[in-house]
Amino acid sequence: MRDFVITADSNCDLVADYIKDKNIGIIPHYYDINGITYGDEINLTPKEFYDKMRSGFMPTTMASNPAVIRETFQRYVDGGLDVLHISFSSMLSGGHSNVVTGALEICEENPGAKILVLDSLNASMGEGMVVMKAVRMKEAGKGIDEIAEWIEAHKLNFCVQFTVDDLFHLQRGGRLSKMSAIVGSMINVKPILVINKEGALVPAGTVRGRKKSLLTLVNNMEKQIGKHRDTDNPICVVHGDALEDAEYVVELIKERLQTNHILVNTISPSIGAHSGPGAIGICYMGEVRQIS
Fold it and tell me: What is the DSSP letter of 95?
């Protein structure tokens, strides 16, 4: 059995040290601010990125570059490795399609090469948790096909929900009407959004006030987590440069679930461009994706 590498895209929001330690190949997604494209050799720190948004810059985003995809896959194939790629949801970006096309081209040009592309139907650390599970299975001796089969059977158990602090970023991205953003901001409405079974971002309710929105995320997680409550699967909290609120959510989770297996990271710019500064998300294994 040939050895293989696990790859993903930069929207998986995995911690940089983990990516380096586990040798995960990352294909970048891109963002543009004031005519400068970031995401490859040039990048902003999370603080720099969100501060630019706070000062009025409105980033635009771009999916993965087909040339970079081909170069990445070809490098692994030339090294005698198969590839298991876990992608950002196909319902949220054209990146998945770009990766599928690149993988097919490389395999056609290199007989015997194997590149499996799996649609996570997820975003941020929801995608990242799928990658971490694949890494654990590989370290346990599982082969590429067995891991791919497990992910396809269980990927809808990886749940993501989040709230935003500023409705106008959702409005700018077409997720909310301008009038709804204006009225909602006036009365301090905070949306609860989830990634559904199709991998799309959909609303799952609204609450009044920031603290209540964070509490609602934890309440919803507790309803969904079911049999995954006492497993070794991590719970991930992601934030748009809002560490204090993220730490508040971490403490709520610790109180409810009696666990310290919680990972915290910032939301990557190509997602944060749409969710804005102050966004908070929770990613975890659950029984079902929909919130009842």
Answer: H
Q: In sequence order, which residues have a C-beta less than 8 Å from that of residue 205 and are 6 or more positions away?
A: 191, 192, 216, 291
What one-letter code names the amino acid at 116? L
Would you tell me how many other CB atoms lie within 10 Å of the CB of residue 25?
Answer: 18
The answer to whether 237 and 262 are in contact (CB under 8 A) is yes
Q: Where are the domains of the chain?
A: 4-155, 157-285
Number of helices followed by number of strands (H, E) in the chain: 11, 13
pLDDT of 39 > 80? The answer is yes
CATH number belonging to domain 4-155: 3.40.50.10170
Is pLDDT at 186 greater than 50 in this prediction?
A: no
Q: Which helix (H) or strand (E) holds 133?
A: helix 125-139
With CA atoms as reference, report the closest residue to 121 among 146, 152, 100, 99. Answer: 152
Q: Return the C-alpha torsion angle 7, 270, 40, 16, nearest 10.
A: -60
Q: Do domains 4-155 and 157-285 have the same CATH topology?
A: no
**Fold exhibited by the domain 157-285:** Hypothetical Protein Tm841; Chain: A;domain 3 (3.30.1180)
Residue 127 in tokens:
């995608």
- Burial class (CB within 10 angstroms; exposed 0-12, middle 13-18, buried 19+) of 31: buried
Nearest to 73 by CA among 84, 62, 59, 63: 84
| Tens-place pLDDT, residues 252-283 | 999 999 998 999 999 999 999 988 999 999 99
